[in-house]
Design a protein that fits this description.
homodimer; 12 helices; TIM Barrel; alpha/beta; Lyase, Ornithine Decarboxylase, Chain A, domain 1
Chain lengths: 338, 338
């Protein structure tokens, strides 16, 4: 779906591999025609370079402490790094032995990383610090992560449009001096919901590969697009408080939480799981009710028994937990190892 | 300190190894005279059994799905399991080939796992479901985890006293029938702050081995008792918003958060770190100000630059992050592997 959307909008599709971190899942992208990828760490870049990926953007401002590893990677693959301060530039420029590309990270309002769009002094300082013909300016990149706090679809689309305009204005300002520079954007909520990508040349969504409860609540996906669950055994049932204990805690699901419209803080949603031993194949089913994971400690999870299905759960049954944030659950469960 | 406190109060000291999960750190306990340990999973029990520990309590209600592994473990070590529902009992009793002990988990108010103290019907149902001479009743066990939401030291001590009374009442009710049963308690806040352990026979604190920011805020420890930090590189500095980006995110620190008295939600505290290359040894120093980790995503951490020290940070510097919850940071960083 995302691949077709990118093609229909003439976008470069450079999916983020940090969600799955899996060589095998990566192959599914290759089958869909993907040749360029995004990762969030030098280690991840090395892993996918070893798995045969040759065009990699590390979408995390370059960590000066890893400059040697970055330089080595540039000798193996077509590598892009991110700069948002001139110190990063000089550290890499002096070491580089092979060509590498760099994007300037722009802060379009998420206020996590990047240079503010009006701060062209800092942008120019980066460009002029390069001083190496091996380091090529590729364009302006952002992650409009503020879409994750949006209240509705319109707000997400508004952030997306504004972010595209900001990047495109910067591109137009610099394109005469640097022909070929592009704009790169692509948080999962925007990429899932937007139909207009004017001003954007490349998208880098990641989470959409599995989606999760957070994306469902944001409206980025439907339930049947969610492709990752954590199967957990029911250990005990406490009818007096309509709760059950599952073996599934913070070390499996992460402590990422979601505030429900009614103010409750939740850590996942339990849905029925059909064991392959009982049926043709393993499967999870749509939610039966608000059977939320209401608290998590290191190994314990507590689910609130709201539906008729969950009220019938017995110790030893299996449930599927839709994680709040699939990226973190996948990282914790080592699902990237296959 | 904890070992001496246990000895001074004639308590069995059975420290919880889930915080460090490390064979090497386990050896420090052995040097302090510890011979019995607590773990929170069957896998952890196997790991420490392989490392030569012979007296292990798995302080998580028994997961029926792991009953074969539990039974095998009972053939290797002196094993105690936890029951809080009769289904667990019959599943294990029918398989067991060697003696094992069981505690009945009591819910003294945390409402995570366990039987409510007044529910002697459920307690009796467990005892009568045993039906195997290999399964020995060891006593009543609790984790008064509600101390973590306490507002002050007095409230923690109140929870501790009440929890000790509840367990001791149950013990007195059953001791004629089962001579030798004990009471087992021991969340880190209670064990750190209490001086009176009347009614308690065994303590099982775990977190105190490293402590963390949560325990510091609760008053369970002083800053110089904290023994685990995550060293993170400063990647970028953003003077316009007095913030810096560190390479240290949810996959390193966990998304465990703490609400400060002023209402802010934080994910860690940055303190100066002295690199061993610059000094005699690696060291971290006391906080210079409210240099909190104010947001975390998968690999990104943002610290708020409050002190003079932090305002002088440059890309490439290292900072020490005191984690909110050391158990989860240690689990994520694989520190248990050594």
């Amino acid at each position: 779906m995302m691949s077709e959307k990118a093609a229909a909008n003439q976008l470069i599709f450079r999916p983020h591999f940090k969600t799955h971190q899996s060589v095998k899942t990566g192959e599914w992208f290759r089958e869909a025609g993907v040749t360029a990828i995004t990762v969030s760490s030098v280690n991840m870049a090395r892993k996918f370079a070893a798995a045969g990926w040759t065009d990699i953007t590390i979408a995390f401002p370059m960590n000066i402490r890893e400059v040697e590893q970055v330089s080595q990677l540039a000798e193996q693959v077509k590598l892009n790094v991110l700069f948002d301060t001139h110190e990063q530039v000089s550290a890499l420029a002096s070491l580089l032995k092979q060509e590498a590309g760099y994007f300037i990270k722009i802060d379009v309002g998420h206020h996590r990383a990047g240079i503010l769009p009006d701060d062209t002094d800092s942008i120019d300082r980066i460009i002029s610090a390069v001083g190496s013909e091996l380091l090529n300016f590729k364009g302006f990149l952002t992650h409009a992560g503020q879409t994750y706090s949006a209240k509705n679809k319109d707000e997400i689309l508004g952030i997306h449009r504004k972010s595209a305009e900001i990047l495109n204005e910067l591109k137009q300002k610099y394109i005469n001096e640097f022909p070929g520079i592009i704009t790169s954007s692509g948080d999962t909520p925007s990429c899932s919901l937007a139909t207009d990508f004017t001003g954007i040349d490349e998208i880098r969504p990641g989470n959409f590969v599995y989606y999760d409860l957070m994306q469902l609540q944001l409206g980025s996906c439907s339930f049947n697009q969610i492709a990752a669950v954590v199967i957990c055994p029911v250990v005990s049932v406490y009818p007096s408080r309509n709760e059950a204990l599952i073996y599934g805690g913070a070390v499996h699901l992460s402590k990422e939480s979601l505030n429900r419209p009614d103010g409750r803080r939740i850590f996942g949603l339990a849905v029925p799981f059909i064991d392959g031993k009982l049926a043709d194949a393993d499967a999870w089913l749509p939610p039966e009710g608000d059977d939320f994971v209401v608290s998590l400690s290191q190994e314990h999870g507590i689910i609130s028994l709201d539906s008729q299905w969950s009220k019938n759960l017995k110790p030893g049954n299996l449930v599927a937990i839709i994680p709040v944030h699939s990226c973190l659950a996948v990282d914790l469960l080592g699902s990237g190892d296959f």
